[in-house]
Description:
Largest sheet: 5 strands, parallel
Strand content: 15-25%
Bound molecules: flavin-adenine dinucleotide
Number of helices: 19
Oligomer: single chain
Distance between the termini: 74 Å
Amino acid sequence: MTEIERHEYDVLVIGAGGAGLRAAIEAAERGLRTAIVCKSLFGKAHTVMAEGGCAAAMGNVNENDSWQVHFRDTMRGGKFLNNWRMAELHAKEAPDRVWELESYGALFDRTEDGRISQRHFGGHTYPRLAHVGDRTGLELLRTMQQRIVALQQDDFAETGDYEARLRVFAECTVTELLKGPGPDPSAGPDGAIAGALGYWRESGRLVVFSAPAVVLATGGIGKSFQVTSNSWEYTGDGHALALRAGADLIDMEFVQFHPTGMVWPPSVKGILVTEGVRGDGGVLKNSEGKRFMFEYVPDVFKGQYADTEDEADRWYDDQEKNRRTPDLLPRDEVARAINTEVKEGRGSPHGGVYLDIASRMPAEEIKRRLPSMYHQFKELADVDITAEPMEVGPTCHYVMGGIQVDPDTGQSRVPGLFAAGECAGGMHGSNRLGGNSLSDLLVFGRRAGLGAADYVVGLESRPTVRAADVDAAAEMTLAPFDPPSDPQDGTGGAGAENPYTLHAELQRMMNDLVGIIRTESEVAEAQRRLGELRARIRQVFVEGYRQYNPGWHLALDLRNMLMVSEAVAASALLRTESRGGHTREDHPGLDAEWRHRVLVTRCADSNEVVPRVVVEPAERVPMREDLLALFEFSELQKYYTPAELAAHPGQPA
Ligand code: FAD
């Protein structure tokens, strides 16, 4: 078999975004030998792209804020589908995680009296997003990288080796997880995580990591869609790796389409326009110049948003006496509203609507508050946002669905397999509030690192990587170099499929048929086409060598994208209601009977190139009573069935 490089660690973290780095810091600080593997350059993860800020109820700008208010906002944003324990931990621990970042050296923007400044964002009752201009993610990641370097310097001082306990393997892609006997070997040979196989992107050389604990922190799935704010590494690798290893995914039908992506020119379509533009005063207008969001406040939010432009504008300065602008409704509501405006002929010339900040504040103020947005539009679209409105429209942005984990430890169903950040599911329910991802990855990245460390320390013996599994994983990884055999004469090459063609077809199909608005017939058609793509991927063939070969990399990513797309489509077909990031035109309303159900995706068999998935409903764990009591009974009635509320203390006599 092909020559393979080998390494051994206690904890293997796959992904070097915010979640991965925070997990690695925690595991390393507990003295465990930790490796961080990332397929992009170190420092170039999605987290860097986060613009608006990190949500944490610190109460710096409005002292009425508290973890309870943040918890309520998060549950409302997710339309009560969130894993309530995750939402609770998140709301309680986010402030400590932000302050901790300061102790690592983060430099947040300040209020006039010197505290960490916080800005408004959609769905958050109070100004809550700690920020660094519109480059918050960059500062967050920079700070955690700095922390990692500091830990390596400590190790050098102690051992003479910077990488004695903590090493980064950058531009290294993991293609398969490896398992061995579990903590209870009598339960079978395939119980627990034993490591992972990957390849160096530059040399194509294969590498095996032996480690009893793996933390998946691989981010999202946006590259399965044509119009997306996500970059090339968001191919659902962690989701698919977890499925193939035997873990469950939940909530995969919920995909967030951010309302404001760039729509023009075509080369930049989908690139994000931060919600911070609206948080700082920008407003949405249609081609008639009308602020249309006032027409789109749904019943469940009635009374919570301003009815008039005057009140909405006063709210920016006085939140006690006025209600917030409907421009800042949760993202799913705004994205659907924009979609309707465009469909009904009131869109902008390039198929979006207008986002106007130019008429709302002086040019210098816009440049100070939103420097990246100013440069982004100037350089990419030749639009001066201090003088004219931006054209914006929905773009695939975030996946709420992900690996099902224990909220407290981040462990999946597979012993030794942990997950955190965007690749984990549950925290955001059917729709994530802006700013809640950066806080999510800090809170649950730390918890997963801690969970993995505790797990390793508690092991009596370590599962070992089996040679046969390594060979099988290596064979699958190198398979795209094997020419498909011609059924006529058995020779290679005939009927070969190009990974780029397949990817473009997948993206177009997912955008058109499983995108922002879905119907039964369209999703069923998507499933049929996914079946065809599944057959065609067996014929994918890449030419050339293993040394930096992007066609090969894409062929491997495609396998993951197809598996995850099947999970999204199958879940979208089953959920016959509209909620958050899942809109069914043929089932337009919320259905209380669906609120207490979660759709679970599992891997059905694993012998195929793209193993099949099955999706089945299960019951959600009912919310703890003290948390339920944080909501008015009348609000819960909008979401819960009467039977679920029968024991609620607020039930009218
Ligand atoms: P990432 O930061 O994406 O890291 C994933 C890592 O996994 C990368 O290092 C990648 O190379 C690695 N990886 C993937 N697959 C493999 C593999 N097979 N092998 C090895 N490594 C692998 N959220 C907010 O809260 N506030 C905001 O203001 C905000 N703004 C955003 C703006 C933009 C443009 C975008 C796209 C997102 C924004 N988000 C925001 C969302 C937020 O940035 C992401 O959800 C979050 O950063 C995800 O972090 P993560 O650690 O889970 O993953």
